[in-house]
Design goal:
Number of helices of chain A: 10
Strand content of chain A: 35-45%
Largest sheet of chain A: 10 strands, mixed
Shape of chain B: globular
Number of strands of chain B: 12
Number of helices of chain B: 8
Helix content of chain B: 25-40%
CATH topology of chain B: Rossmann fold
CATH class of chain B: Alpha Beta
CATH architecture of chain B: 3-Layer(aba) Sandwich
Oligomer: heterodimer
Chain lengths: ~450, ~250
């Protein structure tokens, strides 16, 4: 490890040894790619809070874990799982390993292909079949993307041909049952939506263990001209877990991508949301909420790049923060030269339910084009007393009024989910979760 | 029905109401008029139970109960309704859900069974038509993005659903054009019964052409400086407030 690494992994050698083993077991074409990614990760190291992009989120807890690639581990319980009763295909990964017996794809509409990445690697002449693994990393690649590229074991691959439509939502379950601390899952998913295709993809990251595992997940979505993709990430990891979820979106002309991020679980969760509006009149929605309690740190870090003209982006993030939890919102809007008629809007609202909860919010606008509309707004506060009084003046008890307002805060975000069965289930789930909170009724 | 005796109230040590006396009987419509800063809105807020106002002296009796000792929601359930001058926007709370919760809180208080969604919607549709409101508003968040006129009409819709015994209308006419004013006024008039009373707070006489008061009171510097019949409102319209509020003309 280079001496510049300011927050070294506690046991670099075991992870290095595990990496060497994984590389050797990989197909020949993949080995140099893994090696290069590992080198990039080592060069970069884990960021510290001196790094502007990580100012509010310390990775000390991750640095202290004895990281090692996750082993298959015990089978999960699927009954009662969130989204369990939704129709449509589903892929299940347990501790980062594909679980064929729990997955079912069934008959897919014409032009829709759903598989998992390792299945592709097993084929002969595999080189070139996995474009992502061969893709040159962007100059903005973060350390967790590099770490994921070095270690990724598998992932979902979804391809939609021109005009193909996945009528029912695809559900991807990531369930962690590993019993050892430091168990690291590295999955890399890819959704290629062809021209005018449509799909809804739901990721559920769930924990069924007390162990301090690490989920380093990465999803790429390429929306071709006029494609419409709705992508939802529901994060409800175990209390000791660390979740890093990276989403990389590329939008071609006239395409529409909506991403919803719900952060409920994990002791530390960081979502890196990167969107590039590359074609004219592309339209991107990033919509998220975090529900923090205890000492949780829940962090959304967005970079919205308006590369082309006449594009629209909307970012709505609400935080409901209790106890000593911390919510972080960092939203950068980057309007490239020539991206005229950009319409970008960003809001972050935080509701603090305790005196010890914290919200850090940092909007950042970089505008290199004329004739653009960019707005941002952020609020941090207690419940609005005018709203509480208004409800009470209509005969609603203080307790009910406060509940309604907290629920509204979450409901505002959940309402933007277009996929009705997912929206209704999340509405119930979040409501129940809020009802369990003694501070809301207080 | 309502008996206000020597009410003194203020905010953060600044006195605003300086001895209000007012008595309202069932079936009556009272208007409180006055220039800006006279304490009109404070009176409305204090009656509804807004936190932050300190009552330093006096008492308010509503149907034999000590109103000032009641929580805002208790006042509402007992039949006191405030139509807000500035209705509050509540993003994320669906209007229908809000109205049904309010109506059912009231019904529960009266020992009546809650209305289910279908029955409630039926009751609401009927009232919403009378106020010429667009039904799509019911699917939106409470007051969010409503125009000024829609907000004021939505207040009267709430009043129609909650059927208060004492309605306090705080500058309900402000920001309304004449057509919207007529709709609002006819909504209010329809709710008038021999058992109910209305306290209409306004700066201008205009609203009182449509909601005709039995009594008019002029508020100045926290006191009622003149009371009279509806003709007092017309006199104010012609002569303004100055002749009433000049120090030499104030009652000792």
């Amino acid at each position: 490890m280079p001496a510049t690494l300011t927050a070294p992994l506690r046991q670099p050698d075991p992870l290095g040894a595990a990496f060497a083993q994984l590389r050797q077991a990989s197909p020949a074409w993949m080995q140099p790619l893994r090696q290069a990614a590992w080198a990039r990760f080592l060069k970069r190291g884990l960021p510290t809070t001196r790094d502007e992009d990580w100012r509010f989120t310390s990775l000390a807890a991750l640095a202290a874990l004895p990281l090692a690639p996750a082993r298959p581990g015990p089978a999960p319980r699927m009954e009662g799982a969130v989204f369990g009763t939704l129709p449509g295909p589903c892929l299940v990964f347990v501790n980062g390993h594909f679980a064929p017996s729990l997955s079912h794809v069934g008959t897919l509409p014409k032009g829709v292909k759903i598989t998992h990445r390792a299945a592709q690697w097993a084929q002969e002449h595999a080189d070139g079949c996995d474009e992502t693994a061969t893709a040159t990393p962007s100059q903005h690649e973060g350390p967790f993307e590099a770490l994921n590229a070095a270690f990724h074991q598998d992932g979902a691959l979804i391809e939609l041909a021109e005009d193909a439509e996945l009528s029912e939502p695809l559900r991807l379950f990531f369930i962690h049952t590993a019993t050892e601390d430091g168990s690291m899952a590295s999955l890399r998913h890819r959704i290629i939506a062809g021209p005018r295709s449509r799909a809804t993809v739901i990721e559920a990251h769930l924990g069924q263990t007390h162990a301090a595992y690490f989920n380093n997940s990465l999803t790429e979505i390429h929306a071709a001209a006029e494609a419409r993709v709705e992508h939802l990430r529901f994060q409800d990891e175990s209390a000791a877990a660390i979740h890093v979820g990276t989403l990389s979106l590329r939008l071609a002309a006239g395409s529409h991508v909506a991403h919803h991020s719900l952060l409920l679980g994990a002791r530390l969760a960081r979502c890196n949301l990167r969107a590039r509006l590359e074609g004219e009149r592309a339209d991107c929605l990033l919509n998220g909420m975090c529900l923090g309690a205890g000492t949780q740190v829940l962090d959304h870090h967005m970079v919205m790049e308006h590369v082309s003209r006449h594009c629209e982006s909307r970012e709505f993030f609400n935080g409901i923060l209790d106890d000593e939890s911390r919510g972080v919102f960092h939203g950068r809007i980057h309007v490239h030269p020539g991206a005229v008629k950009t319409d970008a809007k960003q809001t972050n609202r935080n509701l603090l339910l305790s005196g010890e909860a914290t919200a850090n919010t940092k909007p950042q606008l970089e505008i290199y084009a004329d004739d653009v509309r960019c707005t941002h707004g952020a609020t941090v506060g207690q419940m609005n007393p005018d709203q509480v009084f208004y409800l009470r003046a209509r005969g609603i008890s203080q307790e009910s009024a406060q509940r309604m307002l907290v629920h509204a805060f979450a409901g505002e975000i959940i309402d933007r989910i277009a996929c009705q069965p997912a929206r209704e289930e999340l509405d119930r789930l979040v409501w129940d979760r809020l009802e369990q909170n003694p501070h809301i009724a207080a | 029905m309502l008996e206000i005796k020597n009410l003194h109230a203020g905010v953060e040590g600044r006195p605003i109401l300086k001895g209000i006396h007012l008595s309202i009987r069932p079936g009556e419509v009272h208007a409180v008029m006055g220039p800006n800063g006279s304490g009109k809105s404070t009176l409305a807020q204090v009656l509804a139970g807004r936190e932050g106002y300190i009552i330093t002296e006096g008492e308010v009796w509503y149907e034999g109960k000590d109103l000032l000792a009641m929580e805002p929601e208790e006042r509402a359930r007992a039949g006191v309704f405030l139509a807000f001058q500035y209705p509050v926007e509540i993003p994320g709370v669906n209007t229908t859900y809000f109205l049904r919760t309010a109506v059912n809180a009231l019904r529960q208080h009266r020992g009546e069974a809650p209305l289910d969604a279908v029955k409630f919607l039926g009751a609401m549709r009927e009232k919403i038509k009378l106020l010429e409101l667009d039904e799509s508003l019911l699917k939106r968040s409470v007051n969010e993005g409503f125009s000024c006129g829609e907000k004021k009409r939505a207040e009267i819709l709430q009043m129609a659903l909650l059927e208060p015994r004492l309605a306090v209308l705080d500058e309900t006419d402000s920001g309304l054009d004449i057509d919207a004013l007529k709709v609002v006024a006819s909504g209010v008039n329809r709710l008038k019964t021999p058992q109910t009373a209305q306290l209409v707070i306004t700066h201008y006489q205009r609203l009182l052409e449509y909601i005709v008061p039995d009594h008019v009171h002029v508020l100045h510097d926290g006191r009622i400086v003149r009371s009279g019949g509806k003709e007092l409102a017309f006199e104010l319209e012609e002569r303004g407030y100055d002749w009433l509020v000049k120090p030499s003309l104030q009652p000792a």
